[in-house]
Specification:
The protein contains 14 helices and 13 strands. The chain is α/β, with parallel strands linked by helices.
Length: about 500
Amino acid sequence: MSVSKPSINELRRIADSYGFDLSENELEDLRLVGEGTLASYARLDQMQAPMLPVKYPRDAGREPTAEENPYNAWAWRCSVKGAQNGKLKGRTVALKDNISLAGMPLRNGSAVLTGFIPNEDATVVTRILDAGGEIIGKAVCENFCFSGGSHTSDGNPVRNPANPAYTTGGSSSGSGALVAAGAVDMALGGDQGGSIRIPSSWCGIVGLKPSHGLVPYTGIFPIEGTLDHTGPMAKTVADAALLLEVIAGEDGLDPRQVNVRTAPYTEALTGTLAGLRVAVVQEGFGWEGGVSEDVVDDSVRAAVRMLGELGADIKEVSIPIHRDGIHIWNAIAVEGATAQMVRGDALGFNWRGHYSLGMRDFYGRARRARANDYPTTVKLVVLLGQYMSDRYNGHYYAKAQNLGRTLRAAYDAVLDEADVLVMPTMPMRAMLIPENPDLPTYFRTALGMLQNTSPFDITGHPAITVPCGRADGLPIGLMFVGRHFDESTVLRAADAYEQKGSRK
């Protein structure tokens, strides 16, 4: 690409948009002076920027067949094999389709990105392959990952293996369905408001949102840098711990990674709860407005009693600000996603790290040419986000980020006296997939379930969901939340319950 010189008309348009009162002569003078600066861009065109490595050979993969895709969960099939040996030798892995796998389509659930083929492997991809794993495909995700339902992807809805009439949850919808159906050993999901834990809970599998920054987000399509997480989804806690052990740690390219602490997570699975201090968060139960289901609260309460029988020290606590977490999250997500994911052409500005140029170039062009292909969820976010920015100058985004520290401190104060927090992952069971929904139904089934999950995307605490029962065949999830970078304790608690409590 080469940089063209701006015309007077282009500079006039920009000046007017910023409220600059510049005469034609002033604009011409500034244009001439600016040509010297633009020479630097010409030099940049002659230089080669570093790229993420692609270490292992692969072909281009293929579309899934109807026979192998009964739940509409595969976006793309392939076989990319890594090292001959390693912790993941013999294991198959699916990637959420917002993760760059060189040579394979990345659509992020949307027609906007049709035709985008990354030329880089995300850091997590290289780590999986270095550990001997085999990546066998990309899993469907919701349109721009902006939904907790599984009816918003560009294509057919992803169906829940527990009951195909019901949603898997989103936005890592395909990852949840593939693991639950046994089509893959483990998968990677993404979580900005609950998108690992929602489908894991509703599909009856294990899903871990790690501490913010524990797993590098390099090479993954973002929503909002302070909310972005990626992490493991698996049938068992042991498999989730194993995958986390492989992908965790700094890569030197992701500014989300600050003072990261890793551990041998599989060694934390002792099978015992003796002495574990469990704080049951009252505000995680009984959500108003018809959101909570008694059967969910009752199942989680029964699981808590089992934790006590297995040796944990149980204590009820109140964290009133937990009920405000969804409101704080809304302000960050709406304005933050508008600024970064849309206006900022996904990667935004003002951070040091690796910028995926192919992603930025393709998406930057595509979003302008195919704006009507954005999902209704993103269109609403952009309308509200731009309105709040124009009308209130980012005041509420800034206030919400500041309140995020208050929310984090409230959880940390309880975690000073407890090892984990527990509550229902989701206040309700999986919803029916809506057929030709009106707008209120579309949004209720897309964003009406984030109450307990979204606060921990703001605060960055690790949070895992593990199955704790079923009602009418639909899974129910129990969520453990721990201290920052203390995934070992969260995994220990979830594993001990899975091994002993969930089988009683």
